[in-house]
Design goal:
mainly beta; three-stranded antiparallel β-sheet; 13% helix; globular
C-alpha cells in the first residue's frame, strides 16, 4: 500500500483514498494501521452509493 489520505471517519470505518491504485476504499484500523487491502479501489461515487449515501 502506498500513501493514503483519510477523507472521512464513518461508523463503518475509515473512507480513504489510496494513491497507488488511484481510488477510494473503506478500512478499519488494526493495531493503529490500515491493513493491506485487495485492489478493489472504487470511484468515490460508487463507494458512497454502497454505503447508502
Amino acid at each position: 500500500m502506498g500513501s493514503v489520505l483519510v477523507v472521512a471517519e464513518l461508523p463503518e470505518g475509515l473512507l480513504y483514498y489510496e494513491d497507488v491504485e488511484g481510488g477510494f476504499e473503506m478500512g478499519i484500523l488494526e493495531d493503529g494501521a490500515l491493513p493491506e487491502a485487495p485492489c478493489q479501489q472504487f470511484e468515490l461515487t460508487h463507494l458512497l452509493h454502497r454505503l447508502g449515501f
